[in-house]
Design goal:
about 325 residues, Rossmann fold, 2 domains, 5-stranded parallel sheet, 5-stranded mixed sheet, 12 strands, about 40% helix, binds xanthosine-5'-monophosphate, EC 6.3.5.2, ligase, purine biosynthesis
């Protein structure tokens, strides 16, 4: 008999049993899952928990600031921000294979948590003790699609499942591992998290790293970040945030096409809009966004983002497409 109340009670008890009086860190990504996982752990073990927000340089515009503001305001949790963009960009240099990118990002996340742990121990001075537990907001579909479910094929290695290094020093705490996204949202709301957090559209842990088709570098990230900010702002302005499950914006970094702007020729990259509607991300359909909105997004991106001269719309359902392109 599934109720959010039961889930919370059961998970709080499990977490307490698992971690005892140990110290815990939780990676916050800015998304719903990690926020709800953190709130559950906080409910269970209070200030044994420190949240770590890894700024991997693959974030969208304004995202780091938003996490610091919204989540800390809502929960009062201890937050450590780890600025790790250089580490991730160096590790990703020259890599364009999707699964390799995912594995590198998963590994670097763990390395970043290990560094954060050392910093936190140092900061605590004589009180400092080793942190044994790492909380992750892994959901049921992440487990299934990473090949962890019974008889499931490995479709993608989610950064927090199939992308973990072998020599992991932390013991994982994963209170959402049996839940679907809508259930996670209900749990978050019941725990008192504000709508801005529980209603947020999904965003993958590997971030823009898997939305650049081709090699990831700072310049390409900058292009994508600008285009994505425009697309999201227009979707919000059209009042369609809650109707659309999420809208990845994807940079086809190795593709260029000829265009014309003013009196001149351009030779720029295309951007793909991938708005989808879905119940649980296991299946999805492409969203029938109003043409006026698509026109506005296209005009603005091609006018405002130097280097992008074409906007295309992905009209593939899942299956056969997945939501993200990598
Ligand atoms: P796909 O692309 O597999 O995506 O149809 C399904 C949902 O999962 C999100 N996604 C991820 N989330 N870590 C995450 O936290 C990941 O590695 C990851 N890969 C995909 C995706 O945005 C969609 O909501």
């Amino acid at each position: 008999n599934w109720t959010t109340g039961n889930v919370i009670e059961e998970q709080v008890a499990r977490i307490r049993q698992q971690v005892g009086s140990g110290k815990v860190i939780c990676g916050l990504s800015g998304g719903v899952d990690s926020a709800v996982a953190a709130a559950l752990v906080q409910r269970a073990v209070g200030d044994q928990l420190t949240c770590v927000f890894v700024d991997h340089g693959l974030l969208r515009e304004g995202e780091a600031e938003q996490v610091e503001r919204d989540f800390v305001a809502a929960t009062g949790v201890k937050l450590h921000v780890a600025k790790e963009a250089d580490r991730f960009l160096e590790a990703l240099a020259g890599v364009s294979d999707p699964e390799t990118k995912r594995k590198i990002i998963g590994r670097e996340f763990i390395r970043a948590f290990e560094t954060a742990e050392k910093t936190l121990i140092e900061q605590a001075g004589s009180e400092g003790e080793q942190i044994k537990f790492l909380v992750q907001g892994t959901l049921y579909p992440d487990v299934v699609e990473s090949g962890g479910g019974e008889g499931a094929a490995n479709i993608k290695s989610h950064h927090n499942v199939g992308g973990l290094p072998e020599d992991l020093q932390f013991e994982l705490v994963e209170p959402l591992r049996t839940l679907f996204k809508d259930e996670v949202r209900a749990v978050g709301a019941q725990l008192g998290l504000p709508q801005e957090i529980v209603g947020r559209q999904p965003f993958p842990g590997p971030g823009l790293g898997i939305r650049i088709i081709g090699e990831v570098n700072a310049e390409r990230l900058e292009l994508l970040r600008k285009a994505d900010a425009i697309a999201r702002a227009e979707l919000t302005a059209a009042g369609l945030d809650s109707e659309v499950w999420q809208m990845p914006v994807v940079l086809l970094a190795d593709v260029r096409s000829v265009g014309v702007q003013g009196d001149g020729r351009t030779y720029g990259h295309p951007i793909v809009l991938r708005p989808v509607s879905s119940e649980d991300a296991m299946t999805a359909d492409w969203s029938r966004l109003p043409y006026e909105l698509l026109a506005r997004i296209s005009n603005r991106i091609t006018n405002e983002v130097d280097g992008i001269n074409r906007v295309v719309l992905d009209v593939t359902s899942k299956p056969p497409g997945t939501i993200e392109w990598e």
